[in-house]
Amino acid sequence: MSDAPHPRAPRLPWRHLLAAAVVALGLGGVTPLAPQGALATPQTGAVPGQDAGLSQDAVLGQDAQLEPTDLGDGVEGQLSADLVLHDGGALSPGEAVTATILLSNRTDQIASAGEISFHIDDETIDTRYDLTAWTENTQSFPDFSLGTEVYRQTVDQVHPGSTLEFTVTIPASATQFLAASSFGTRGLTLQWHADGGIAAQGRSSFVWDAESPANPVGISPVVPIVTDLGDEGLLDAVELEQLTAPEGDLTQLLDAVAGTSATLAIDPRLLVSIRALGADAPETAVAWLERLESLEDPSFALEFADASLTLQAQAGLEAPIETTGFRFETSQHEFFTEVQPTPTPTEPTGTETPGSTNGTDAPEVEGQADSTGELPLETSLTEPGETDPAQTNPSQTDPAQTGAGEPDADDAADEEEPILEPREAPEAEELLEFDYTRPDLSWPASGTVESLEALTDWGAETIILAGDQATSSPDRSATPSSQQQIAGTEVLVTDQTLDAAIASAVTAESTLEFQDASTDIASLLAVIAREAPNEVRQIVTVLPREALADPELLGELLAGLTDNSWTAIDAIPTRADDPSILPETELVPGGYAQETVTEFLELTSALERGMNLTALYEDPQAVDQELQVALLWTIRNSVIETDAWPGERAEFTEFATGVADEISIVGDSEIQLIGHESSLPLFIENASDRDVTVELRLRPTTGHLTVDEVTTVTIPAGTVTRATLPVQAIANGVSGVEATLWTTTNVQLNNSAEFVVNVNASLETVAVGILIGAGVLLFVLGIWRTIRRRTRDNAAEVEESSESESAPTESSNND
């Protein structure tokens, strides 16, 4: 995509194009011009298309009555007429005027068919006061204030609750009476004639772009390079790829500002988000950052995430909150550095060097035969006076047409690619590094500066100050340059009327809104140019400090300001060597509501509590850094005191301190404990999304138990882990136990639990006694059984012995 701005043609609906085409073809009637300085007599012209036998609805589309567009300040129960000029509100001699007309009926009656007429003021608008009065006083109908009527045509009826929208082209002949007029802003009035009178009128203005000796007004726009994407910290790879794609918002933003001298207010969060991803950064994001670094536009750094300095100062902080590092992100990625390889020395090939002579030192002479008796190949075979074709036609000696001086294949092989070597993750200073051209600049949010002293104490040297916070001289006759001083501090006072008009243009939600705002900008700057035509003035203007939904609108606006003869885009004024010589103004103190300051102090308390809890994690320092980044994102200027502010505060508080509620003790409320020394089993649940390490502590409520130790437990994210804690029973009975969770740095978490423990310390002694008694009894029984068995065995032996002795006696008696 080109670096040049990309102006867009007006994106008109098809019915607008059709109506404009019909007018251009001459199908509509044009009212003859009145003499210069005289009011034109109302005459009836034809609606575009009527002469061709078409109704207005046919030309504009059957749904024209239902067009919802409404740019006017219509009041319920009334009719209203609005016109929006095309082409940026500038009209050169010989050009036609093209405008979109909106006729709205907010009554309950049909507005009858009638006419519309256009009137150009005979005099230029020469002051900002007159321009404001002209634009706002749309309901005044005296004809003498409208100037010359230049065009008239008929219009159809408008139904209740409807808006009729169509395009009108006023031919160049209608503005011939301005041919000899001077450059300047002129009023343009639209009148809607219906029901026998003037039903409504609308006003606009345009710049008659005749030659002018007035010096162009220098405009120094300050463009924030920011994004609203992200959640609590840095941008991830998916978000960066979306933003830096060829049609991404950040890409289009650089397209809009490249080469325009607009001053870039860069959010360092973008730089860090890309660099902290290391090798995982999207190629489009890396290329975008390289392009940003190569731009020649002036630049300065916003606070990280565009955090509000003035809120921190008003809250009494001694120093602004700063990021100490980004290890929470860099630790997840790999980083490499390019190293040029060491050239490899080439080995001799053994071929003869130029000038060698086959073993002799004498050089060969052209045309002289070598040792073989043949002429060398390098010898010219042409006769004296003839031209060697090879010398005049390089293709004969260089068929590939490589040409002298181009590297051959061997040279290309010697050019090795750089080697990527792993490196340590970069520190914060390297991630934040950028070559800002205006590091002295500070840009507080509009209306929030309570005192310049805090900002200068924190390093600001030149402060971009909203126009409503600087006094203006009561006898001022012309818009001053922005570069001024307050008590010796250089300030660049913005023009808030211009700021508001530019904001309307770059945030426009339709082509008509953009064209309307562009016309307001052109008219205002033309008035400023005529105020002091011989002075060289430079006005600083700022864009909304938020991501633009359509950055192309900015490019189109800057292109228009560059093309206008009465404006020029300039770099922001160079810092004065001695601010005391600048025009002096005074600060109109501003600031945030006290409620907002209190809410911010609550956020700092949440940050402190959150940092006390980071010992739960494996890398407490990395989590500390993540919390700092999240707080700065929460207090960004674009969200403070908006509808999103309460939700942002709640999200940060939950992020910082929520883990204290997400770790709890679960399980039964009654535990049986037997014996003097045992372990009490408890279950700990971690409902957070990170692994945590906690200390489990017990406190008995009676003297039945003593606990002398704590248990350290690591619980993976989203799990329940069993923990055991050694306890000692002193006496039997029922004891209450309170279990609490702590960080390893002695910070108690929010959840605790109470248990009832049934202590049976003597039951262990009884059980041991029973076991010993049972053992003794078994031993005695064993001995008794053994003795009894032996006695029985001995008796049996005696009996057997007696029987054996009596047997021979009986035998002898028988004999």
UniProtKB/TrEMBL annotation:
<feature type="region of interest" description="Disordered">
    <location>
        <begin position="335"/>
        <end position="428"/>
    </location>
</feature>
<dbReference type="Pfam" id="PF19516">
    <property type="entry name" value="DUF6049"/>
</dbReference>
<keyword id="KW-0812">Transmembrane</keyword>
<protein>
    <submittedName>
        <fullName>Uncharacterized protein</fullName>
    </submittedName>
</protein>
<feature type="compositionally biased region" description="Low complexity">
    <location>
        <begin position="804"/>
        <end position="815"/>
    </location>
</feature>
<feature type="compositionally biased region" description="Acidic residues">
    <location>
        <begin position="407"/>
        <end position="419"/>
    </location>
</feature>
<feature type="compositionally biased region" description="Low complexity">
    <location>
        <begin position="337"/>
        <end position="360"/>
    </location>
</feature>
<keyword id="KW-0472">Membrane</keyword>
<dbReference type="InterPro" id="IPR046112">
    <property type="entry name" value="DUF6049"/>
</dbReference>
<keyword id="KW-1133">Transmembrane helix</keyword>
<feature type="region of interest" description="Disordered">
    <location>
        <begin position="793"/>
        <end position="815"/>
    </location>
</feature>
<dbReference type="InterPro" id="IPR006311">
    <property type="entry name" value="TAT_signal"/>
</dbReference>
<feature type="compositionally biased region" description="Polar residues">
    <location>
        <begin position="389"/>
        <end position="400"/>
    </location>
</feature>
<feature type="transmembrane region" description="Helical">
    <location>
        <begin position="766"/>
        <end position="784"/>
    </location>
</feature>
